[in-house]
Amino acid sequence: MKISDEIVEEHGLKKDEYSKIKVLLAREPNLLELGIFSAMWNEHCSYKSSKIHLKKLPTKNKSVIQGPGENAGVIDIGDDDAIIFKIESHNHPSFIEPYQGASTGVGGILRDVFTMGARPIALLNSIHFGSPNHKKTKNLLHGVVSGIGGYGNCIGVPTVAGETKFNNTYNENILVNAMAVGLAKKNKIFYSKAKGLNKSIVYVGSKTGRDGIHGASMASAEFDENSQEKRPTVQVGDPFTEKLLMEACLELMKDKSIISIQDMGAAGLTSSSVEMAFKGELGMDINLDDVPCREENMSPYEMMLSESQERMLIILNDGKEKEAKKIFDKWDLDFVVIGKTIDSKKLILRHKNQIVADIPIDALSSKAPVYERKWIKTKLPEKKTDIKSLKKVKIEDALIQILSSPNHSSKRWISEQFDQMVMGDTIQKSGSDSAIIKIHGKNKAIAVSVDSSANYCKAHPLTGGKQIVCESWRNLVAVGAKPIAITNCLNFGNPENPKIMGQFAETIEGIKEACEFLDYPVVSGNVSFYNGTNKKNIHPTPVIGGVGLISNIKNSIKYSFQKEGSVVLLIGKTFGHLYQSALFHEVYSVTEGPPPETNLINEKNNGNAVLKLNEEDLILSSHDVSSGGSIVALAEMSIESKYGVKINKPKKLSNLFEYFYGEDQGRYILEIEKKNLNKIQEILKLSNVFSEIIGITQKEWFELSGEFKIEINELYNLNNKWYYNY
Amino acid sequence: MNSSVIVFPGSNCDRDIADALEKLQFKNKMVWHKENELPKSDLIVIPGGFSYGDYLRSGAIAAKSKILEQVIKAGKDGCLILGICNGFQILIETGLLQGALLRNKNLKFLSKDIFIKIIKNNNSFCNKYKDNQVINLNIAHNEGNYFTNPDHLKYLEDRELIAFKYCNKAGEITDNSNPNGSLNNIAGIFNENKNILGMMPHPERMVSKLISNEDGVNLFSSLLK
Fold first, then answer.
1. Cys bridge to A113: A182, A349, B30, B177, which one at CB 3.0-4.6 A?
2. B47 and B21 in contact (C-beta within 8 Å)?
């Protein structure tokens, strides 16, 4: 078949990219080869627009065992234990088919983690929808939430934390980011680099079907009015098979059979074989006649581009086939040797006794296009609106409006659809700053969280990028964990638009600065571009997944007020920054102005002081101050508790709205014993940390002295009703 | 006390229940579904999860598996059998317990802490609890809405075969405290000889104060001879 211009375009390749393919092959590709190039050269697999920027991110500290470039990142948590984790997007498929899209997003990220030898111990998610009033939103929300639950619940990994946000910007392009965290032994980590010649390449797991063909290419283009026609490119998940695959792989990993292993994710058999060969600097000779197929007469093209789920590629040590096969037979899974490693550094595919593709590996990987796209800076927006010029609302009405808004309502309706307790190690579930998961059989735990703040990033990507790393760090500190490293999922619009590319470049710059300063490196992640429909791009939405260590479980900090009569401290200085705040967005619909500044020195200093107080066992409960300011943080600490708080008015004469709703960064609320106040203030003073007493806990009532008083039961109801009534 | 936990492809609470049993000093063995023989057991547990993916109907395929023939035989001979969540669904599918577990009334998977009332303590599973004691356990299921016909319901009630009912914190059995729509708030039932118990809530998740509470401990300690 002659490759026409139309065929090239259908494969999402630009004209000059096609010319480059012809140069690299020194001939015209056939259709199968073109398909393979399109799968490997699309944005999703090649990172062609993001690569040069991603290189700037710090990826190492003393705990990092493996940074980006593998299936997931690996960190050391002591005692021979390693934590393996990654976040990934499944935005485009979830918009087209919410249940399957979200479900296979979870399945894919789980495979990334157990491929490396870890048993998954926690799942998290960050999901963003359009306006609740938009006609598609309700259906998408229901589908995505049950899809995430459907996979995690069945495979038996607890879904412990997440965030859900609504904004018009996602009306026609929702975001579904899933994160998985696994536990492995430090000396039992498996990598994807192939080694050794003439080794068996083994296909294990589900059979290959005609689903998900060109899924990665679909995810590398904007949507238009015909996006629903892309439904056949969405994969269908089978969590039951994945559970079997996981158990079989972990069983096989107990001995020394595996040289390398790679899951078949985006671009399926193509990308898994190419990646393994490229890293190992060798080639692969694969006989497609041996690939287990769901249907008869599947073409090589379909086999190579299918994104059927729950499949893995393994390179085995000599003579291990029999033992390995026995394990996969036990779990009723396919196990087929489909090829051998070769020294020619080529991908050779055979079908019905003919060579149907013959491509140099480097043409698909290191020689794939890399773009230094044009980008422009986003100016820091001006401060135009003054709070004093806005119509007067009662301070309690603003609080009620924020707490009962879709974005700030309790996510109980969602978390109740996820099994949060299976595996028996969930110490703290969703709803707090971070979830806490015990290391099975040990006296230590990890804290995990996901965060994003698209409003801040939209207003000023550089500040937003910095802020979101800090917020992640703070969320771990707030539960008593020492932050170790992050994974990031970078959701952006069309990188060919210089403004969008600028948002990306500057967000990365912000993330980099904060990560470097906090010694909080990026160990894994994913970029999702082309989030938009008909040239309307989404707000830049980097999502940060953080992992920290609690060396002794008794040092984990609760999130709700613990007793009556405790002193409540506000750590960190309040300036009253209201632009891009929940107050401005939810109550006044004012969306202009800059995000709050992030002072990295204060951030680090304040956080370390909180950890120090915690080491001395001086904190009863704590919460970071984020969206909604200190008053919302105080309300959240009361809502799940028997105790409320009587809040003092600020001593210095200042605007109450600025003081209580301002979203200045680097702040925490701490509940402490009255008798320890002096000691704590001394420690804080020595650490140069600003603190002030903001209130005293009390039974039943949430109260701002001289202003208003609400029963905490009522606050609970206000905070909990939105989802159930939606 | 020797216990056996049956493991199906798709079981996912098998490790949790084994940990709880071992904590309570049971000598526990895991039994793979393809095995023909059961080890000597005083207690057999069918754990939660999604056996065979719960495709077809929850528990339907597991009920036809090889090892279940032995479990059914042991149950008829008086061996203690505990089915939790998917285990309860499987016991219903085998016919060892009667009734049906329908989809939750809100048609959604539901994972939350709930209260149940111990109806009577005069049986092997509850003798360390008090009559009418209220305990706090966790549920996590899609199909836990117990249903049966009026004659069978009367039979269950007359013979005191209802083990637990969903209730509120104060022990009142109300519609609001019924999470999944179960008939008469039924959360667990016995067979006629009370050697077999099927329940939707997970007692094995409530054996540690650090993680949750210890309300599930007495169910296991009741079984210890």
1. A182
2. no
